[in-house]
Amino acid sequence: MDLTTPPTNAKIIAIDGPAGSGKSTLGKLLANCLGYLYFDTGVMYRAVTWQALKEGIQIEDEEGVTRLAERMTIDVHQPSIDDGRDSDVIAEGEDITWDIRKPEVDANVSQVSAYPGVRKALTVFQRQIGMRKNVVMVGRDICTVVLPEAELKIYLDASLEERARRRYQELIERGQKADQKQILEGMKARDAFDSTRRHAPLKVAPDAVVINSDGMDAQQVLNEAKRLVRGC
Fold first, then answer.
1. CB 143 within 8 A of CB 208
2. What gap in Å lies between CA 19 and CA 70, rounded to an integer?
3. Chain-wide mean pLDDT for the chain?
4. How buried is 89 (Cβ within 10 angstroms: 0-12 exposed, 13-18 middle, 19+ buried)?
5. What is the spatial distance between Cα 82 and Cα 87, in angstroms, rounded to a whole number?
6. What digits encode the pLDDT tens for the residues 85-140?
7. DSSP class per residue in 145-198
8. Which has more confidence, 55 or 171?
9. Residue pLDDT, tens place only, 143-164
């Protein structure tokens, strides 16, 4: 599939791509344009990480964290509060939308998301939300594993150098210290891990539209995606 594909009335849109490619930005803009739920699947891994820390489960305890993911109830809805959130994240009946953004979660979520058992358990929740339709779901294995039924699949790509530059600029604009070379090396390692992991590796779905965002701003990327969807 390429950008000459006729527009679709897609009710389920899946966006994959490597770290820093702009998936979240595109997903939010496209969901807002269509009035759909924006669902970054990363919030579910954050929810499990938050709950593990809350319950005193060691993050290194893969079996314990996996059991937690299997017994937890997690859901994601359209935002109910106008406080800057992209969605409501509900775990065990509690709104933890902002709790999952705390530094201690940032420091541990990568390890949690690497556990195959956790990914398998959360895929069930992700599919349930996706199959409700009217959703733009963003992640690294949405098109290939979580929602192969998606009517529109987009793989958003960008060069390693461009992605590192964007992440560096984002951190500087937030007033944080950043080293662009260090960011680039970190992304290179993350790319290697994501694309070679045994369970749900990052790859392009055969029927996905590939958009390379090098040299494009967010609006230009959105414009390319809008060409693929009717009603946006």
1. yes
2. 26
3. 90
4. buried
5. 10
6. 999 999 999 999 999 988 899 889 888 988 999 999 999 999 999 999 999 999 88
7. II-TT-SEEEEEE--HHHHHHHHHHHHHHTT----HHHHHHHHHHHHHHHHH-S
8. 55
9. 999 999 999 999 999 999 999 9
Size (the chain), residues = 232
Instruction: Choose among 158, 167, 161, 165: nearest CA to 212.
Output: 158
- Position 190, amino acid: R
Domains and CATH numbers, the chain: 13-222 (3.40.50.300)
Run of H or E residues at 111: helix 109-113
Please give the torsion angle defined by the CA atoms of residues 89, 91, 94 and 99, in that order, rounded to the nearest 10 degrees: -60
Which pair of tokens denotes residue 198? 């045994």
The number of beta carbons lying within 10 Å of the beta carbon of residue 188 is: 13
Q: How many CB atoms lie within 10 A of CB 132?
A: 12
Per-residue tokens: 123: 């895929």
pLDDT at residue 201 in the model: 75
